[in-house]
Write a structure and sequence with these properties.
Number of strands: 15
Strand content: 5-15%
Largest sheet: 6 strands, mixed
Strand order of the largest sheet: 3-6-9-12-14-15
Radius of gyration: 25 Å
Number of helices: 8
Structural class: alpha/beta
């Protein structure tokens, strides 16, 4: 059982990290693999009532890998922690099969109360570097959390959360990105090069609409003047809208 899981973990490293060159390299130089392997032991100790030993094992794992996984956390199969330094996973966190976490990720709590206080990640979730997923929320299957995002609300399956606080980019917005992600199996760091913040996209959309509205008004004024109707000077010489300046501020 142990060696089957280990072989499975090694395969998922090759599937998601093009830098992996050999099994020996993965076994000896990948702290994420070490942390997950030792977590299984500490989780078993925790489940069998050996709480101090479990915490001691978790502390040792943190010391040698830079990855802190509470022994009470539930981690599914084929989870991959890439680089891993600074990853913190809380006691009641649940990580589904096939998830990918990058360095600096926190699956943390927002309450001192007992009970469920850490996130639940569905199958195939990708959490980008530095992202903070906080509270007893659910990240839906196949969802992505962009690098440095701060997520405090549920994320629907297949969606992408970006920004601080995180906003949702609905699936299917960019078909080319979706097709490319499907070919790769996951999106590295949970965002693609052409992914944009949804708020800035909305503002750019409003700017484009304002520019088109100004153009139509100018056309209407010309038609009115051709019909012999005099247009007041303050209407004809109104200040021009400058979308370029506002676009620079948004970007």
């Amino acid at each position: 059982m142990f060696f089957n899981r280990l072989r499975e973990d090694i395969r998922c490293v090759f599937d998601r990290d093009p830098a992996a060159r050999s099994t020996w390299e993965v076994l000896t130089c990948y702290p994420g693999l070490h942390a997950l392997t030792l977590h299984r032991l500490s989780h078993w100790l925790w489940g069998n009532g050996l709480r101090w030993m479990a915490r001691a094992m978790s502390h040792f794992t943190r010391w040698i890998t830079g990855i802190e996984i509470h022994p009470g956390a539930t981690v599914g199969r084929c989870v991959f922690i890439d680089h891993g330094m600074g990853v913190v996973i809380g006691e009641t966190a649940e990580i589904g099969e096939g998830c990918t976490l990058y360095h600096g990720v926190t699956l943390g709590g927002t309450s001192w109360n007992k009970g469920k206080r850490h996130p639940t990640l569905g199958k195939g979730v990708v959490v980008g570097a530095g992202a903070k997923v906080l509270g007893p929320i659910t990240i839906g299957e196949g969802a992505k959390v962009g690098s440095n995002a701060v997520v405090v609300r549920d994320v629907p399956p297949g969606a992408t959360a970006v920004g601080i606080p995180a906003r949702i980019v609905e699936p299917g917005r960019d078909q080319a990105r979706v097709e490319k992600a499907a070919q790769m199996g996951f999106s590295a760091y949970a965002v693609s090069r052409d992914e944009d913040d949804p708020l800035s996209m909305a503002i750019h959309g409003l700017l484009d609409h304002a520019v088109e509205t100004d153009r139509r008004i100018e056309v209407l004024l010309k038609y009115i003047e051709r019909c012999g109707v005099s247009v007041e000077d303050d209407v004809a010489t109104a200040d021009k809208f400058d979308p370029t300046f506002l676009s620079k501020i948004v970007d």
